[in-house]
Amino acid sequence: MAHRRTHPAPSCNFVARDNCWKKYIESELEAARRWSHKWGFLKTPAEELIEDEKKENTKPKIQFPEHLQVRPVTPVEKYIKVIPSPPVPKTTQGFIGWRSAVPGLELECGFQIQSCKERSLL
């Protein structure tokens, strides 16, 4: 495996290295100066943020007219009736259509299935 160098090559110019270091320090100082403008909101204490929310919650409620008010929730049981299922068939062949064979559980409601064979072509 290659050995990693910790020091720059001896043939490197000291003035060039010094200029690189100065640019690096300048960029760090510039980033520190811009940080408060971009991310300064993160320094706000949580107590101050919570106080602002408490002030907003103290607004009085507006009374809406009767036709704009939200109605109370109607229970689902009023519209959907769940009846118990028939016993589960003991064989796999019995599973095919076992619920649709019971009149109360049929899937085809309100229409009849017609066969194509009953029609005459003449």
Query: Approximately how much beta-strand content do the residues carry?
Result: under 5%
**Care to count the β-strands?**
0
Order of helices and strands: HHH
- The overall pLDDT average reads 76
> Structural class of the helices, strands and pairings?
mainly alpha
Give the CA-CA distance, first to last residue. 91 Å
* Radius of gyration over C-alpha positions, nearest whole angstrom: 39 Å
- Report the total helices: 3
User: The biggest beta sheet, please?
Assistant: none
Helix content: 25-40%
- Which shape, going by the Cα principal axes? elongated
**Stretches where pLDDT falls below 50 for ≥5 residues?**
none
Explained architecture:
The protein has helices at residues 14-39, 46-57, 92-95. It is mainly alpha-helical and 122 residues long. The chain is elongated, with a radius of gyration of 39 Å. The relative contact order is 0.04. The model has no long low-confidence stretch (mean pLDDT 76).
